[in-house]
Amino acid sequence: MQYDVVIVGAGPVGATAARYAALNGASVLLIEEHSSVGSPVECTGLLSTRAISECDVKPTNDFVLNSVKGAHIYSPNGICLPIDGGKTKAYVVSRKIFDRKLVDMAVDAGVDVSIKTRAVGLNRNDGRQELSVLQNGVPKIISANVIIGADGVRSNVARMAGLGQVRMVLSGIQIEAKYSSNNADFVELFMGSQAPGFFAWTVPLNEKVSRIGLAVSTGNKMHAVQYLNDLLNSGKGVAKRYGGGILDLVYGGIPLGPLEKTVADGVLIAGDAAGQVKPTSGGGIYTGAVCAKIAGEVAASAAIEKNTSEDRLNEYEKRWRAKLGRELNIGMKIHEFMGGLSDNELDELLDSINTPIILDLITEYGDMDHPSILIKKLLSPTNSWQMVNVLRAFAKVLL
């Protein structure tokens, strides 16, 4: 089995990288270790409108379950920060159907697909990559000019290529259950010690059913399962509207902090495997799709040129960091700051933000994919007087 480019992992990032490699003239194989595309699901299924667009699809009823236009953000003592985008900002989707749609698009572009195929070894021989796989349990060797690792948070390809691991992995859990939403057009976010190091959420499928979950940083006194159990049985907040029972259950890790290097001789790493995930929200579809397109283009051109050295493939590294590096860096600083606040500090900070003028700025300039736009606007000289109380809250924390 010989190809110009082989992609490991058939999620949205892998499927998009495969499609772009094929569209740029390469022979492409997309492999997936599980028995079906889109399973198991390890995602909230809340995708920004930009994420859908970046994947080159239009939102349709076959995979869109609901649309949301904003968020209600709750501080530990129940202060609600209402963020109303005024129009659809994100879609709640069926990831199984969405993922399969992207793989179908890759197949239409000429990509071969092999499921139940797990990468277990990687060796460079005479300028080509030899990928050892178990295909339906049978050992095989696949030869390729370039391997793209899009195999998730604990990437085997990154490890085998000597590129290490992402900076940190949050532990996440989510259920689908009966839940009485105050407004099915809004997601809910819950900050503080009920989900230390990140936040808890409810994502409405409709007025009666939501996805309820949380993620926590490692090193906490309890596992994510225990934090979710407490959230559902606390007698306040989410628990008051939780209808009991579980319709679906999802576990997953959220990688934060990109790899120091995402290229090696004959290898590119993309998506969750590379840590190309927004640290503020944990979303990785938009950022992953941006990087996947670049990876597919660079891999195809390098393979066709028969120059797959690290120096040649470094074009991918430079291009994706130029597009997203600053946003990911700012997002990580926001994540680290918010994760270090006590419940009282979070209460004070959100209370200082909860003013009509600042909420209007957030509504107009807030962007879940590019937080730097809002930060720049809030800190501009023309708005500095409106930020006095917020800066005081920051100062109390820092000093």
List keywords for this structure.
18 strands, alpha/beta, FAD/NAD(P)-binding domain, single chain, 8-stranded mixed sheet, 399 residues
Question: How many individual helices?
Answer: 12
Number of strands: 18
Low-confidence stretches: 391-399
Strand content: 25-35%
Compute the average pLDDT. 90
H/E topology pattern: EHEEHEEEEHEEEEHEEEEHHEEEHHHHHH
First-residue to last-residue Cα separation: 61 Å
At CATH level 3, the topology of the largest domain is: FAD/NAD(P)-binding domain
Oligomer: single chain
CATH class of the largest domain: Alpha Beta
For this structure, what is the CATH homologous superfamily of the largest domain?
FAD/NAD(P)-binding domain
Task: Describe what this molecule looks like in 3D.
With 399 residues, the protein is α/β, with parallel strands linked by helices. The chain has three domains: 183 residues, 3-Layer(bba) Sandwich (FAD/NAD(P)-binding domain); 114 residues, D-Amino Acid Oxidase, subunit A, domain 2 (D-Amino Acid Oxidase, Chain A, domain 2, 2-Layer Sandwich), CATH 3.30.9.10; 62 residues, no CATH class. 36% of the residues lie in helices and 27% in strands. The protein is built from twelve helices and 18 strands. The strands form three sheets. Strands 1, 2, 8, 9, 10, 11, 17 and 18 form an eight-stranded mixed sheet that branches. The radius of gyration is 22 Å and the shape is globular.
